[in-house]
Amino acid sequence: MSFGAGSAAEFGGARRIGLGLTLLVSFSLGLALVLVAIGIAAVYGKKVLPKSESAAFRYLPVASAALITVIGVAMTAAAMGVVRL
């Protein structure tokens, strides 16, 4: 089916592209603001927290990274149909 130049179908596509670009830019700006806020909170939060030489605080980043990795592997396995969650 062929539409003439300037048809409603072409303008509808342009509106969808415009909406998609608007959503993409909005999401990107929101993500950037959240990441900057987290970074600022981490910098100021480090000054507020007491100094601790506890082993738990030293291994907490490693434990959280391991947990995120395990969750990612489980989600990938579930998406591939290897396991059923």
Q: What is the structure about, briefly put?
A:
It is built from two helices and no strands. It has 85 residues and is mainly α.
Protein architecture, described:
The two termini are 45 Å apart. The chain contains two helices and no strands. With 85 residues, it is mostly helical. Helix content is 79%, strand content 0%. The chain folds into two domains: 1-49; 51-85.
Strand-helix topology:
Elements (H helix, E strand, L loop, with lengths): L7 H41 L6 H26 L5
Fraction of residues in β-strands: under 5%
Distance between the termini: 45 Å
Structural class category: mainly alpha
Q: How many domains?
A: 2
SS elements, strand count: 0
Largest sheet: none
Supply database-style keywords.
single chain, 85 residues, mainly alpha, 2 domains, flat
